[in-house]
Amino acid sequence: MLCFMPGVAFIPALLVCWSSAAFIISYVIAVLGGHVEPLVPYISDTGTKPPESGIFGFMINISAFLGAATMYIRYLITEKQNESSHFMSPSCNLITLCIGLLGCIGMGIVANFQELSVPSVHDGGALVAFGSGVVYITLQSVISFKSCPQWNSHSTCYIRMAISIVSWIAVIPMIACASLISITKVDWIPGEKDYTYHFVSAICEWTVAFGFIFFFLTFIRDFQGVTLRILTEMHEDF
Phi and psi dihedrals of 126, rounded to 5? Predict the structure, then answer.
């Protein structure tokens, strides 16, 4: 069904579906395998042990690629819109893209450096992914307001800004509580040391992650009226 969507709307739609599936499938396999407790584990906890670790890494890597593709196309769309309307500085659009791509790199680090194997690298990648991601969707929300009402409806702008605000509210306690946890483990038991910090941080992590997913869902309509073409030129000198 995604292939029959108009324009390039299938790209953010595929990103939303694939990323949601990555989180849910890894969670279900990890819980059924007894590797994590069902009550709000960290997202990374559900992709730490085999076999879910392989599925998690594979699917998150593709999510990072789809995220980068979505962000780049969004950059091109905004660039074209700005050429006719002049509602923002082109450098702002470029900076927003770079911050978004930095978040995708962070996702790749999270996918390839597992939590228990290299925790410092994994945690650094997660911090980059979530931090850059929240900044990216906030900047995109501001851009949406600047291009309203010609290129975006008021309702879309308010939805995007609401998601950004919720993500900011969640990401701050997520980072704060995670920094207070003194041990690195996946099999948390209610009542043990640092469990409260883990529980709050994990809830916030899931909130931010699905905040990103719902935000990219709002891109689908914008992408429906866009067509991308690859131009091939042959040079006789080579």
Answer: -65, -40
In angstroms, the CA 236 to CA 238 distance is 5
Q: Please give the single-letter amino acid code of residue 140.
A: Q
Q: Tokens 């709307």, residue?
A: 9
Map tokens 């067509």 to a residue: 227
Q: H helices of the chain, where?
A: 10-32, 52-85, 90-112, 119-146, 154-180, 195-217, 219-223
Distance of CA 123 to the CA centre of its chain: 16
Model-wide pTM > 0.90: yes
18-36 core/surface letters (b: 16 or more CB in 10 A; e: else): bbeebbebbbebbbeeebb
CA distance 32 to 36: 9
Q: Using one digit for the tens of pLDDT, what is the confidence trace for 15-56?
A: 999 999 999 999 999 999 999 988 889 999 999 899 999 999
Nearest of 67, 103, 88 to residue 141 by alpha carbon? 88
Given the structure tokens 């997913």, which residue do they identify?
A: 213
